[in-house]
Amino acid sequence: MIEGTKVQGVLVNDTPFRIGGGKTSVSKNAFQQTTDSAMMTRKGVPFIPGSTLKGFMRGLVESIVKTKGGEVVYPYEEDEKDEKKGKPNDIVSQLFGSKSNASAVEVMDAMPLETPTVHTRTMVSIDRVFNGQYPSNLYSLDLVDKGNKFKFTALLWGVKLNEECKGNDERGEVISQVIETMKSGFQIGGRKSTGLGLMRLTEVKCTQFGLSDVEV
C-alpha cells in the first residue's frame, strides 16, 4: 500500500545566507563584535531548519492557490463550525494542516553535507529620516558562504508523485509546482531584499513509500 512520497535532493546556496536571531542593540565597539548569529546551529554546525523550508513551501502553495482563484483558509481564521466539518476542502489546509487535521507535509532539517564555511560582514544602519548612515551604528553579521550544500528530505503523506516528481491529482500537481520553483531558485532567511538567501534544489528524486519503508 502506497502511503506517500519521499522527496530528496541537495540544496545549494547561490548567495550567502543567514537564518538566526534578529539584530541586537549595537554598542560603540560593535565593529569588533558580531551582533547577530549566522543561523541556527546544531553542535556548532549551521543548518537550515525544516520549519523554515516548510514555511516557504506553504507560502508558495498559498500563492499558487490564490492565483488559480482557489480558497485559502488560515488556521487562526477557522471557527468551531469549520473544525466540526472534518477534512477541510482547501488544498493548503489539506497539505499543511489546520485545527481539524494534521499536516501531510513533513520537512526535515537540512543538514550540511560538509561543514559550511562562514564569513563575517560589517554592516551599517541607515537613518530613514535623513537617508544616510546612522552615526556609530556599525554591526556585523555572520553569513554562510555561497556554494555550500545541504541535504533536503521531505515526506508527503498521502500525496503521490511519480519518479519525475509529477502529481496525478490537485494536491500532487501543486506540490510538483513547488518542487519546480525550488529547482529554479528561491530565497530563505534574513535580508532577502539585499540578495541574501538564494537557494536551488538540485539532484531531486521522488520515491513512493509504504509505511514500513520510511527511513529519514
Automatic annotation (TrEMBL):
Gene Ontology BP annotations: defense response to virus
Matches recorded under InterPro entries: CRISPR-assoc_RAMP_Csx7 (IPR013411), CRISPR_Csm3_endoribonuclease (IPR052216), RAMP_III_fam (IPR005537)
Residues passing through the membrane, by range: none
Keyword NAD: no
UniProt keywords, alphabetically: Antiviral defense
Database matches in PANTHER family: CRISPR SYSTEM CMS ENDORIBONUCLEASE CSM3, DUF324 DOMAIN-CONTAINING PROTEIN
Name of this chain's protein: CRISPR type III-associated protein domain-containing protein
Taxonomic source organism: Sulfuracidifex tepidarius
